[in-house]
Description:
Elements: H1 2-14, E1 29-34, E2 42-45, H2 48-53, E3 62-65, E4 68-70, E5 72-76, E6 86-96, E7 99-105, E8 112-119, E9 124-133, E10 141-150, E11 158-159, E12 161-167, E13 171-176, E14 185-191, E15 200-202, E16 210-212, E17 215-222, E18 230-235, E19 242-249, E20 259-268, E21 271-277, E22 279-281, E23 287-294, E24 303-311, E25 313-317, E26 324-329, H3 340-343, E27 352-353, E28 355-356, E29 360-361, H4 374-377, H5 379-402
Amino acid sequence: MRLAVALALITILADMPIHPDAAVQYFTNVRDVHISDSGKQNYFVVDQEIWTHSRSDLGDLRLYAGDSLVQHAVSEQREGVASDEEEAKVLNLGVVSGHTQFDLDMQGLAEYNRIRLRLDAHDFVATASVSGGDKPGKAAVELPPSTLYDFNKEQLGASSVLKVPTSSFPFLHVRISDGVRPQDVKGAAVFQQHEQQASWTKVESCAPPQQQGRQTEVTCNLPEHIPVSRIAFDVATSQVNFHRSVTVKDPTGFRGAGGEISRVRMNREGTLVTSEQLAVPVSGISGQITLTIDNGDNPALDIEEVQPLVTERRVYFDPDGKTDLKLYYGDKKLASPVYDYARFFHVEGSPAQAELGPAAQNAAFVGRPDERPWSERHVAILWTAMMLTVVVLGFLVLRGLRTPVTK
């Protein structure tokens, strides 16, 4: 019995989790980091080389100044996120001098910079003039106008969003130049759209487009460890006024939602409308995917390149007067760091961009020792010990059965 207990204790202790520490000799890759201004916060952009040889969560990146670790924080350069839409009451809807006008009751709403009009109007281009004030009616504070349009007849989409500077006026007065009747205005929703634009890093590439009848197909290989979030289409600048639906088929054959790509440049009755959307989302998909562009009865697009993109990641750090650091990466077993710098991270005013040197293999690399649990590294010994335990226990049981009971 004591043998069985000892064996169980050894197995439990041997299988206790191991948390590997960072060490230079365990990283496969290294790059120099040249500091442009050592007296302020710096950052560098994670490029395809780093994505290719590091973990998908970038948890194995380490910055060293000599033998000392330099704390860092990874920041994702996402686009601004809109707040939830809130309904605004439409007041005083009517016609003045042949133009549709109305007020929007914004009382009680937080700051806003977007108003989405629900319009039941078609085939038009109009300019919406907006002014803000403390009461209904045309106010003294003029806000920038917005262009509204509906080109669904030409299959080029529509836009009914008013863009204004961040405002908190209790009332807005809207005047639409032409093409929208009072009965076409069905409502309005207000929200806040942050102006930060997303930044993107190019990774991998897609095969040239292939024509299949009325459709254009593009094949892309998306690496599993790189979080590709969108596919961008580079369409010749000479090709304008198009709108195409794009479907995405993943490696299992499932067709995802895909998206739409379009470019609109139209001058309708003296009003210039420009709009461009040339990317579709593919978050959460990896492996070989197929993008299918439905051209309908239109000519195929002149697509010059199809490029997978990942949201740009920046690595921020404080050099503390140092001008040269080294970036190590490529240790798949290393746990992600837990830095106070990252917990309390914020981007300081005008951080300096550091320059990454050429990628190189780490000359000091020796690889981690086998850090699997003892039971996985010595399966044969474990099974032999277990069989021996069974034999010993069986022998003891049989001997106990053969021993006569004394009274």
